[in-house]
Amino acid sequence: MPEIPLPQSVPLAWYLILSAILFTLGVAGFLFRRNVITVFISIELMLNAVNLSFVTFSYKFKQVDGHIFSFFVMVVAAAEAAVGLAIILTIFKNRQTLEIDEVSSLKN
Amino acid sequence: MDAILFLLFAAIAVVCGINVVVQTHPISSALSLVGVMGSLAALYLLLGGEFIAAAQLIVYAGAIMVLFIFVIMLLNAGKEKKLPRRLWVKFAGIPLLAIFIGIVAFVIQRMLPVTEGVKFGAMTHGNPQELGRALFNVYVLPFEVTSVLILIAILGAVVLASKEIE
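Predict the joint structure of the above. Result:
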């Protein structure tokens, strides 16, 4: 059985590439999904990806500032989730729909 | 060992992330997002961020996801309707996405030449003690501003959600 060569320690770039992949998936979900809640979940995915790169750079510079930034990102994400979900509730009460294409009263 | 753990959790994160985007039912997307968040918490631990890993699990996978699932259940959100997509979107979307990720990965590899790898335990500044010291000395103003932001968000959410629509 051939041995798969695995590095003893993970290169820092792998973490950043994983972060980029997750961010791109979040952008794709944000653009392609039509359900408001799924769009919102994609935004959370993007925030998580950014957090990962913050923590990675914090490791690289051996400083705690990146951790604090990702902590603030978490707090802002919590606030954003509360307000956003309230907005979604209001939209649903007004229009009985969650399809993002049907909420177009600001168009034109 | 580090590489195996990283690859395991990275694979879980990517598969769950793809699942978030591909699933048509919001509840499946939300539960896949929990998988992403859990594996990211494990990766934070590998990077030496103990406090951030715990906060990720408690705040994100606990509080925010419960909020999401509450709203999905409350609104009884169903499957997304299938709408016809344009032909080029159908066939060019995924390859273009893969090419974009490839370019970004290439750029990251080029910009970060072979540095020292990530060793578990090499970063010792991620404990709550150091974080609290930085948070309450250097970052005390942003911290207080964030608390005001949270207060405003609570008020906004209550006002928005309790508004009566005639």
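Chain A touches chain B through 70 residues (CB under 8 Å).
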